[in-house]
Specification:
The protein is mainly α. The chain has helices spanning 5-29, 37-56.
């Protein structure tokens, strides 16, 4: 990924948004039926969340 303005935008805008969605999904997962569409979607998102660091915030190395 680039190290210019795109990276700065991802860090400033996307990371807080993803963290907010993760927090809401974590809280609401207990209220959703595991086999419902929303329960499956939240579980999938939470399971895939670590990959977002690689996709959006990879710094190279």
């Amino acid at each position: 990924m680039s190290k210019g303005p795109d990276r700065s935008l991802r860090t400033e805008k996307i990371r807080p948004l993803l963290e907010r969605i993760k927090g809401q999904a974590t809280q609401e997962l207990d209220n959703a039926l595991p086999k419902s569409a929303i329960g499956k979607a939240m579980a999938y998102f939470l399971n895939q969340y670590p990959k977002f660091d690689n996709i959006f915030f990879w710094t190279g190395g």
